[in-house]
Amino acid sequence: MMRFILPLVIFLVLSAFLYVGLSLDPREVPSPLIGRTAPAFSLPLLDDANKQFSAQDMKGQVWLLNVWASWCTACKDEHPVLMDLASKNIVPVLGLNYKDKREDGQAVLRRSGNPYLLTLFDADGKIGFDYGVYGVPETYVIDKQGIIRDKLIGAATPKNLAERILPLVEELKKK
Amino acid sequence: MKRLLIAFLLLLPVSALAEEARDLADNPAIERRMINLAEKVRCLVCQSENVASSRSDWSNDVRQIMREKMIAGASDQEIMDLLVERFGKSVLFDPPVDRETMPLWAAPFVLLVFGVGILMFQLRKRRAAVAEPSLTPEAAHKAATLLEEESKS
Asked: How do the domains of chain B map onto residue ranges?
């Protein structure tokens, strides 16, 4: 009996490891910034180079910071999802136009709509670096105290918004 | 004159390209230090490459930031700490031994001990199976007489 049970157990354990391993995305590196204060920034707006906006201005609100660029293809897929989110008025979404040309960024918003409360312009990607951005799009959930609570790497989808981001936002709003 | 102009025009893009490599010419010591350090950093966009050899945008940025920090007087350790703070320990090609990575470091040894345990168990079982059956005195006597008859005939 033992002869059959032992290989079977080894097989099951291996299958379990493979099953979990294959469903993980190795590109998704957990951010060490979760649970830490969002790095401070003061950046010009995409549509007005003379206006500055700082992370400090969002204190007291739960908000999303969505990093995007006109050259990023996944951002195009994500855009309608963000438009839909914006139309529901659940949570303010700020855009961070990352390593882009000002005209190109503006053109995207003119062409396909603007889901953002406002968009910050990070031409050289310095603030993106502070936030640990390595693949656009990325979306950060920031709470009332200015602490990063979660980070989506890759495009927001109706699924990950409904299952992961929005429940967290609701929870943080109550605090 | 025309030829001279053509020659000049042909040279133009070359001098434009030379601009890119200026950092290297400016400070070879910093550049060498930067490459040394960049070899220890994983490119997060192309995970099996290091930042020194990767041509991705992200790696370019990281190398540029390394240069700037080095020129500003930061030590290699300070730059590494900054990168780990931003991107997590996965940027290190040499994972440190600490509480989080301990299971990974320990796993081969745990498996080895486990394997040796199974081997010992199996060997002991086999030895018991093939051990010489001990003879009862009568059987030994009978065997002895049989052998004796054999040698007589």
From this structure: 2-91, 102-152
Given a cut of 90, whether residue B136 has pLDDT beyond it is no
Interface of B with A (CB under 8 A): 44-45, 47, 57-58, 61, 65, 84-90
- Three-state DSSP at A125 gives coil
Mutation for testing the B interface, residue in A29, A33, A72, A127 having most B CBs under 10 Å: A29
CB contact under 8 A, A135 and B88: no
CA of B103 vs chain A CAs: smallest distance (Å): 15
Residues in chain B closer than 8 A to A125 (CB atoms): 61
ipTM of this complex: 0.72
The domain segmentation of chain A, as residue ranges, is 36-174
Q: Of the candidates B47, B58, B61, which has its C-beta nearest A26's C-beta?
A: B47
Assess whether pLDDT exceeds 60 at residue A83. yes
In angstroms, rounded to a whole number, what is the distance separating the alpha carbons of residues A53 and B7? 50
| CATH of span A36-174 | 3.40.30.10
How is domain B2-91 classified at the CATH fold level? Helicase, Ruva Protein; domain 3 (1.10.8)
How big is the CA angle at B34 (ends B29 and A128), to the nearest 5 degrees? 140
Measured distance CA(A162)–CA(B92) in Å, rounded: 34
Query: Residue A35: left (phi > 0), alpha (psi -120 to 50), or beta?
Result: left
| Confidence category of residue B19, pLDDT binned at 50, 70, 90 | very low
A120 with A53: CB under 8 angstroms?
yes
Nearest to A68, CA basis, from A156, A3, A141, A1: A156
Nearest CA in chain A to B58: A134
Using CB atoms, which residue from B65, B85, B87 is nearest to A134?
B87
